[in-house]
């Protein structure tokens, strides 16, 4: 259960960060999914948080559709 809550939190952080930059809700959803998608491949919660450049690179490659 804790893993799910942590990943949900990471998604919300990515989603909220994107919305605060003024992107559309759909773009924010993609950003949140990319954020969580990268984080699940790493250990921990805070250390797993990807950098903005990593998220943007994943989205540029067509990930987190």
Question: How do the strands and helices of this protein lay out in sequence?
Answer:
Elements: H1 2-20, H2 25-39, H3 52-60
Descriptive report:
The chain is built from three helices and no strands. The protein is an all-alpha fold and 65 residues long. It has one domain (2-60). Helix 2 packs across helix 3 (52-60). The longest helix is centred in the first third of the chain and has 19 residues, at 2-20. The radius of gyration is 11 Å and the shape is globular. It starts with a helix and ends in a 5-residue tail after the last helix.
In short:
The chain is mostly helical. It is built from 3 helices and no strands.
Domain module tally:
1
Low-confidence stretches: none
What is the terminal separation in angstroms? 26 Å
Gross morphology is: globular
The total beta strand count reads 0
Query: Averaged pLDDT, please?
Result: 87
Percent of residues in helices comes to: 55-70%
**Biggest β-sheet description:** none
Order of helices and strands: HHH
Q: Whole-number radius of gyration? A: 11 Å
Instruction: Name the structural class.
Output: mainly alpha
Instruction: Please report which band the strand proportion falls in: under 5%, 5-15%, 15-25%, 25-35%, 35-45% or over 45%.
Output: under 5%
Number of helical segments with 4 or more residues: 3
Core attributes:
65 residues
